[in-house]
Amino acid sequence: MQAKDLNRFKKKLLEKQSELIDVVHKTENYGREADAEGEAMDIADKASSSYTKEFMFSKSNSDRQLLQMVAEALGRINEGSYGACLHCEEPVERKRLEAVPWARLCIKCQEMEEKKLL
Asked: Are residues 26 and 68 in the same domain?
């Protein structure tokens, strides 16, 4: 992959990383604030708050996983293996990287992984 393309993907990944870090921090702060407000709530408000906290925790967990995948992609850029499938080592399709710059696998291997064949 050309240096120009690597720099463009690195920029996209760094922007996504920054966005995800902000989202994770906001979610954590929301959870802390909800805990602090919980003492003054009636039972219906506590149930609603609990549901919202669980939803936010689930979203935060997904965001953390995505953040980890972005960090791994940045690591692959630094070590020079970005753009190669981690399973078959063939190049990951350019359109795939454009859509999902943190993609670890080519489309064929991704489909096999989703079918639990890898």
From this structure: yes
